[in-house]
């Protein structure tokens, strides 16, 4: 008999104090956090910046996951990016000098998910259709569009990260 696995986050019911229309965004972010933490537990530090077959490294994905959540949620608040956020964007993909960089990057992503969840909790549903602009080109979006894209983009990069990490861990030739 197979060991029962726990259900995906979206099947665990509504999150307390989360606006109903933002539940799917919150569920997607929590699912991403679970998957990243589970797969990268004990991930070899020496493989963090490897690019098998030229794809983005696990380290890049971790930096990008944190950064994209920070940037998209900033736009959703109607704010422009700060110099620090722009510098962080430019540095994505560069190796960091930490004693335990995998844990450092995973914890930074976890903290960003926590911040995102707090912002979701405080987002009034009546603001979801409000216009927002994105980037230097001031491209049009809405609060809801930005939040949904943040969840979708996070899921996409988590999928790429998971495949890259498995390939590197299991020694598939590059």
From TrEMBL:
SUPFAM superfamilies, sorted: DinB/YfiT-like putative metalloenzymes (SSF109854)
Pfam families cross-referenced by the UniProt entry: DinB_2
Gene3D superfamilies: dinb family like domain (1.20.120.450)
InterPro entries named among the record's database cross-references: DinB-like, DinB/YfiT-like
Domain DinB-like: from-to ranges: 29-161
Superkingdom per UniProt: Bacteria
Name the record gives this protein: DinB superfamily protein
């Amino acid at each position: 008999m197979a060991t029962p696995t726990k259900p995906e986050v979206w099947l665990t019911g509504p999150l307390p104090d989360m606006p109903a229309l933002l539940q799917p965004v919150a569920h997607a972010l929590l699912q991403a956090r679970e998957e990243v933490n589970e797969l990268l537990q004990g991930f070899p530090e020496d493989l963090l910046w490897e690019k098998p077959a030229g794809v983005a490294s696990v380290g890049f994905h971790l930096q990008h996951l944190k950064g994209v959540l920070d940037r998209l949620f900033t736009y959703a608040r109607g704010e422009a990016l700060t110099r620090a956020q722009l510098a962080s964007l430019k540095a994505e993909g560069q190796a960091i000098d930490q004693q335990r960089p995998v844990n450092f990057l995973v914890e930074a992503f976890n903290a960003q998910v926590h911040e995102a969840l707090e912002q979701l909790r405080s987002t009034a549903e009546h603001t979801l259709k409000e216009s927002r602009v994105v980037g230097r080109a001031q491209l049009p979006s809405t609060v809801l569009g930005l939040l949904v894209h943040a969840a979708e983009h996070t899921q996409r990069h988590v999928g790429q990260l998971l495949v890259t990490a498995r390939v590197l861990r299991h020694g598939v030739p590059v």
